[in-house]
Amino acid sequence: MFIAPPECPVFEPSWEEFADPFAYINKIRPIAEKTGICKVRPPKGWQPPFACDVDSLHFTPRIQRLNELEAQTRVKLNFLDQIAKFWELQGCTLKIPHVERKILDLYQLNKLVNDEGGFDAVCRERRWSKIALKMGFAPGKAIGSHLRSHYERILYPYNLFQTGANLLLYMPIHSPMSPLQKPTLTNDTKDTDYIPHDLPQRQSVQPLETCSIARRAKRMRAEVGCMKTVTEEDCENRPNLRRRMGSYVAKPEPQAGKLCPLAKFTEKCMCRCVCLSQVDQYMCLVCGSGSEEDRLLLCDGCDDSYHTFCLIPPLHDVPKGDWRCPKCLAQECCKPQVAFGFEQAGRDYSLRTFGDMADSFKSDYFNMPVHVSLVLVEKEFWRLVSTIEEDVTVEYGADIASKEFGSGFPIRGGRFQVSPEDEDYLSSGWNLNNMPVMDSSVLTHITADICGMKLPWLYVGMCFSSFCWHIEDHWSYSINYLHWGEPKTWYGVPGYAAEKLEWVMRKLAPELFESQPDLLHQLVTIMNPNTLMNHGVPIYRTNQCSGEFVITFPRAYHSGFNQGFNFAEAVNFCTMDWMPMGRMCVDHYRQLNRYCVFSHDEMVCKMASKADTTMDVALASAVQRDMTVMLQEEDKLRDKVSKMGVQRSQQAEYDLLPDEERQCSKCRTTCYLSALTCPCSPGQLVCLHHAHDLCSCTSSELTLNYRFTMAELYPMMEAVTLRAESYTYWVSHVSDILEAKQDKKKLRSLVVEAEVKRFPQSDLLRQLRTVTLDAEKCAVVAQQLLIGKRQTRYRSGGRKSQSQNLLTVEELRSFVRQLHNLPCSIRQAPLLKDLLTRVDDFQQSSEQLLSDEAPSPVALQGLLDLSLGLDVELPQLALLRERLEQARWLDGVKGASVRPHSLCLDTMRRLIDQGVGLAPHSSVERAMARLQELLTMSEHWEERALPSISRPRHCVETLVEALQEVASIPAYLPNCLLLKDTVDQAKDWLQEAETLQLGGRIPVLDTLTDLVSRAKAIPVWLDPLARLDSLVFDVQAWKESAAKTFLMKNSAYSLLEVLCPRCEAGTGPQQSKYKRAKDAAQCSERNSARLDCLSDVERALSESKDSASAMATLAEVRQKEMESLLALRASNESKLLLAGDCGALRVCVCHKAPSGAMLQCELCRDAFHRSCVLGSNQDPLPNQAWVCPRCQLSEKPPLDRVLPLLASLQRIRVRLPEGDALRFLIERTVRWQHRVQQASAEGVAVTTSHQRWASSSPTWAPSPTQETNSIPELEELMVEGFLLQVTLPETQQLYRSLIKLDPRHHHHTDSPFPQHSAEQDQHQQNSQGGTTIQNLTSVSFPLSFYQVNWVQCDGSCQQWFHQVCVGVSAEQAEKEDYICISCTQPDHTRE
User: Fold this and answer.
1) For residue 1255, what pLDDT is reported?
2) Greater confidence, 679 or 209?
3) Whose CA, among 253, 593, 701, 1281, lies 20 to 30 Å from 456?
4) Is the dihedral of CA 859, 864, 865, 866 positive or negative?
């Protein structure tokens, strides 16, 4: 599929640009030369009349067979012709086989086999499948075997012939064919007959062909009479010109002079029919034997004889046609090929008849009207040139000389009568008859009329007629104009890529360049642009329509084809920038041995001879540079010839000789400056580059022929240099004067000098003339303006007076415009220019602001302030003031809109009132409409929002829908904001409630209470509120029930304080926090700081995630409670035992010294005055432990009253600290009972007696060792039992058992005290059964568990007392007498 290259640039000049073609081409050259070609559309209305006589124009076109044009296709056709000729000379006809329903590409097959190492290597290494894949056949179909068969049958004999193997006198062992094989070229009925193209033979006049009858091998005399006559088919069939879609219609043309086939056959038979004795005279030149005469062949070229089986490869049968032996075959096939070219058609056409033929061909080919899609024609053209199966032939009327048949443009003195309105076309620079000879064209200095270069050529095209890849002669410019007809498609390559294109074509079709090194200069070869682009060649295309020019640039390869019947005209031209390229082209031609169209040196010398005031100075500069190169090269060559020994020289008038008489016999360059001749070679000469290639004579025999001596050439170059530098000096002088701002008289003298010396009409000269005139005008105008200028501006907001003397902006601009290019200095010029600049800036800024929909008020005010310094009539001021008021109001509206939180209803009403008084403007009206709409909506929703959050309460969904409408209102609406906050609070509350419900954990009371309290404050109907409120009520009811169960009347303790383990054991609620914290720190260093008090425990329980963490917290508090209490017990006991001075000892709740009968708490082990605790519920009972008021926190209900509380709490399913504490209390109680049972099972008996003294029947009496080890354990169990806020029978039983285990209380063997009677002991017992400290010998007091100091009363009772109990220290007991309270107060009632 053909992919169109990118388009080349298309230029559309204005009438002003179109006036000078060379100036315009020079202008577009930097862009166009990058693509090699460009298209120029003349301005509309430029339509030159067609001056050619349609009826009188007759021409003979060229014949173009499309698939012979393409380089790669032509290579394939040449190869197939060689194969066909090879087999034809051996009496066989070539038929191209079909593989997979496609014609086999024999050229590709042959090339791939050769690339793989040849037939033997491919067979040996079994690469036929690989070759089939490379040829595009699908794998897995055994195509490789078919390819091998076809190669072995058709191509292998030809390759053997190419290597010369068939000339050997023996058969190689490795030959794949044996003498018993079938004939070498066997054809299938499905094969396609190949008709040779005979490309070289069609380029020259063909002689009359006398095709003789095919000769046969000599047979036995009996077989001669049975031989049949065979006619030879005529292969020279001319395809019909008008064929459709590749269908081939052959029309055989009879040729004069051909003999009758039967006569030829009879003649040959007579020559070969000899007697048997004569047959014996023929010997095979290979084996030297004359046996097997029926297999002996006689060559139709040299009459040599060969056996069919002695040939390489062998033949099975006698060929039916003419047969050539290997020697004749080599001579015939090795003839050099004739250069390819186009043949001329056999008939003459007029323009009208050619057009009828062309239109008919295109209509018949596409089976549709003439107007076919350009893309379709382009793709079909490139398909046809790339195929060998279809032979399409077209005709092209190319290179028709306009001098002979007339140009399509009107010319002066021509046959075509030009109307008065078209006379401008006679002298137009775009008239191709004028362009080559214009002053700006270098070709005007060539005197000869060169067809195609100085004289236009005409081109009459038809569909598919093409012009092949080529560059113009001498790498010049070319211009093509399509007068009328269907478009012409062009392809161009930039000049810098010319060598790349040549390299690619040589690489892809090297066979063509071997026979024609200058193939690309013959205009006979084309190659698909896609192929070139794939190899990195940049290509651009365009479609040239009628009335359009296409220009090609130096060394830009170009090609193309015609879309249909059209008429074009083309000519070459050369600008001054071409001259270096032209000299490079001559050197290139010299390397290719190609002739020149004209002598470049001769042209330069003729231009230098006119280096006076008539030569353009820019052209003089180009000539000077080119001539410098020319003289340096010529001087070097003449010096080289002189050193060779050439002594003779003479002047030669080469400009008077025809070009063919002064061409170098070696490189065919046209000589002008110098040449070498020799008497031995008359009529021949060589250029100085090939001085050694003229003849074999010595250098002294040669003669140097020169046109000018070097002494004559250098003055010519100096004249050119002077002409070029005179303009340079003038340009420099003008530039200096313009920069120096000198007097205007010098400008006038420079203008006169340019006119006298005929300097080019450059921009600088035109500028100089303009400046000179402007300087003279401005000198007058400036004086008038400065005299008439007055100060008329008030300083009041930019307002002006009504004075008529103010300058208008246009007046000021006209004046400054005149001053801009002045070469002279004017004092007022800077002031006026600055004023104009400020006015322009003001007007530009004003227009920009006024065109803005919403200009900035700051910018408007700035412009008004700026206008105060401009003393010019400014019509924009009034409008600026109006827009300023509008902008300020719009800015206020915008500022309020971008801050919707501050845009309240009052602000909207105020803005609307202000906008009513402004001048009408679309932006103001839109802003007013938006503001009024916003106000209406805001007022509506403010009225609706307030009732929405009042009674009755609405659901959240209803309020959310209302808020969705309110959210689009960009204003501050307090009621709506309040509604939004309310909805947000409700959403958050519902989210929290849902999270609490779906969280998977039992909610905490504090969280639940907080949710309920917050929900009641939200004026929105919340569905979960009623359920949560009921749940909180149930929890509160449970807490009241638990408080009634545990708390004592008027208790100072809270329910949580009673149920939780105590953080500070032994402290009451009245104790200061400082002292409690201090005592707790002294009790245990392991206590955590975060659980130092009840508030810490409560906080920890509230923050716990689940009951397990709460139980862990309480377990930690329980551990601290036990440690703290045990430490407190030890401290109190040591305080009582070790106190030496009882007066300093502080006990009881009153913190006073011990006195009288004291009670000791079984839990904290502190001593208490009976009077301090008398009458309270702490009075001791018989045979029961007594606990002080500090340690007695609650009523200690029985366990059966506590368990229903826990069950009811579990039904509520709300976590609260009191509930966790109750659960821990019950679990702790159960664990404690289990430990007591375990201790009983281990042998530590729990007594069932209700006596505090010795039990008569203990359950179990331990040994002394067990007794000693069990006391601390039982004591710890007892302490924890007293700490439990539940009444348990095991507590008192454990207490009684612990008393039984004290030996000192039972035996008193170590006691220093005397024995007392039971009556005395009974006297020591109070009426309530409490333990007194008056007679400690009969009391099983827990203090007896430890070693204590005693003191005896020195009074009348002589009783013993603990020192710590009576407040006496050890020193006092030894030094002083102690009298107890009973002896000192006889009236004291003994208790």
Assistant:
1) 33
2) 679
3) 593
4) positive
- In sequence order, which residues have a C-beta less than 8 Å from that of residue 1029 and are 6 or more positions away? 1012
Query: Which residues are CB-neighbours of 998 under 8 A, at least 6 positions away?
Result: none
Q: What are the DSSP calls for 639-687, one per residue?
A: HHHHHHT--EEEE--GGGS-GGGSB-TTT-PBP-SEEEE-TTSTT--B-
Most confident of 608-617, 701-710, 796-805: 701-710
Helix, strand and coil content of the chain, in percent to the nearest 5, comes to 50, 10, 40
1259-1311 pLDDT, tens per residue? 334 444 455 556 777 878 888 888 888 888 888 788 877 777 754 333 333 33
**Calpha distance 1145→1166 (Å, rounded):** 11
pLDDT at residue number 128: 85
Determine which helix (DSSP H) or strand (DSSP E) holds 1370, and give its type and residue range. helix 1370-1375
Q: Choose the weakest-confidence range: 227-236, 460-469, 593-602, 1224-1233.
A: 227-236
Alpha-carbon distance 469 to 519, whole Å? 10
CA 649 to chain centre: 73
Q: Rounded to whole angstroms, how far apart are CA atoms 191 and 101?
A: 10
Q: Which tokens go with 1180?
A: 């001791």
- Burial (CB < 10 A; 0-12, 13-18, 19+), residue 332, is middle
pTM (predicted TM-score): 0.49
Q: What is the pLDDT of residue 187?
A: 53
Beta bridge partners of 1168: 1159
Cis before 952? omega within 30: yes
Could you count the other beta carbons within 10 Å of the beta carbon of residue 1209? 23
pLDDT at 496: 94
Structure tokens at 1138: 């070790």
Query: CA nearest 429: which of 13, 18, 26?
Result: 18
377-387 tens-digit pLDDT:
999 999 998 88
Q: Which residue has the higher pLDDT, 385 or 1141?
A: 385
For 37, the 3-state DSSP assignment is: strand
Compute the C-alpha angle 177/178/182, nearest 5°: 80
**Short-list 757, 429, 763, CA closest to 611:** 757
Region for residue 639 given its phi and psi (left: phi exceeds 0; alpha: psi -120 to 50; beta: otherwise): alpha
Contact 140, 87 (CB under 8 A): no
For residue 663, the cross-strand partners are 670
Nearby residues of 731 by Cβ (< 8 Å), 6 or more positions away: 764
Q: Which residues of 224-260 are buried (b: 16+ CB within 10 A; e: fewer)?
A: eeeeeeeebeebbeeeebebeeeeeeeeeeeeeeeee
b/e per residue 399-429 (b: at least 16 CB within 10 A): ebebeebbbbbbbeeeebebeeebeebbebb
Residue in 97, 335, 94, 341 with CA at minimum distance from that of residue 196: 94
Higher pLDDT, 740 or 1380: 1380
What is the per-residue pLDDT across 149-181, written as a single tens digit (0 to 9) for each? 888 788 878 777 777 665 554 333 334 443 333
User: CB 1179: neighbour CB atoms within 10 A?
Assistant: 15
Tens-digit pLDDT profile for residues 875-915: 888 888 888 888 888 888 877 877 777 778 787 888 888 88
Evaluate whether 195 touches 390 at the Cβ level (below 8 Å). no
Query: Residue 500: which of 531, 541, 523 has the closest Cα?
Result: 531
Rg (CA), the chain: 66
| Terminal CA-CA length for the chain | 132
Looking at beta carbons, which pairs linking 593-597 to residues 24 or more positions away fall under 8 Å? 593/518, 593/666, 593/667, 593/668, 594/518, 594/521, 594/668, 595/659, 595/663, 595/668, 595/669, 595/670, 596/474, 596/659, 596/668, 596/669, 596/670, 597/450, 597/453, 597/473, 597/474
- Mean pLDDT across the stretch 1191-1205? 84
* pLDDT value at 1179 more than 70: no
Q: How far apart are CA 352 and CA 93, in angstroms?
A: 43
Distances (CA, A) of 63 to 66, 67, 571, 1034: 10, 12, 23, 116
